[in-house]
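Please produce the structure of this protein holding S-adenosyl-L-homocysteine.
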Amino acid sequence: MIELLGLTLDQLRRQAVAWDLPAYCGNQLYHALYVERRWQFDQMTNLSRTLRERLLREASATLPGIEKRYPSADGSVRYVLRLAPDTNAEARKSPAERGRSSATTIETIWMPEADRQTLCLSSQAGCAVDCHFCATAQLGLIRNLTAGEIVGQVLTVLDAHRQELRPQTNVVLMGQGEPLLNYEETLQAVRLLADPEGMHIPLRKITLSTAGIVPGIRRLAQEEIRPKLAVSLNATTDQQRDAIMPLNRKYPLAPLLAACRDYPLRPWERLTFEYVLLGGFNDTAADARRLVALIRGLRSKVNLIPWNSVPALPYRAPTDEAVETFQQTLREAGLLAFIRRSRGQDVFAACGQLSLLEITT
Ligand code: SAH
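Below is the modeled complex.
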């Protein structure tokens, strides 16, 4: 069986040829999967009967299944999605282990607004980066997602809301995982999402957020087709950043900001810096002034994210006053700074809360 979801147009064309069919059958298949959004081969009425029969025998197009749905009072919905077992990982297991606990779940958030919907996608199940304030870190890395599983999150959730879709879809790669540590699959997913002949989500509506993987940022800089970039800065000295993001020992502030300064911004583009405000830790006016000095001269904006609580973690949310003052200091220095109050906190759908917490209602 060959899994088709996640294959590019070229790959589908090649597959068609491998099946002794004309290459354009690959185009038809691509259109059915990503434009018409049909995943049942017998419903792909744009395909010849021969091809449909072949697909039924030899191929699959597997979307993540909806395991649970947690609607928030603010209209957003946290989806816990079930992935099919990773067949490669499955093959490496001993016969006794096979089939056991291989079903993986991830989370995807649906956030509707007046004129658009934003989908927050996971790039990995769990995460290896270990930021101390983030719930997903506690899972560790479970596995990388395939391009099909990343794109599949969009297809599944859009389909679940097909009655109420707004004209524009935005995508943020800000769910579970560190996208630049699953580079190839994430970029393949971005190319599929952005293809004007396919899902057609413009690149300027797709944002990838990284904890600061410097080689990944430098590699992304070379890509012709790349999303917007957001960097989770979160601290203004190495000592402070080391304490909350162990990754900073490997990629400290100086090389991280050098990679940001070298990053080739497109004419319409700004770099985004995310800054999680941890009460009493990194939320003082002195922190704000250091932040100004660090990113001065960079065409950027700052998204301030008041910490969302995660049970058992030794942090607290900043006071409203600290948040306002912090923003004010940045603005007075001429920076663009926004306060991002996360949505879906009542259902653990907010930034840093994605760790499969079960809610008992
Ligand atoms: N791994 C990527 C993608 C995750 S994006 C990254 O680190 O950028 C999630 C954003 O939420 C990051 O900016 C992260 O720093 C922030 N975050 C993590 N835990 C949080 C929490 N408990 N409250 C608020 N923001 C949090």
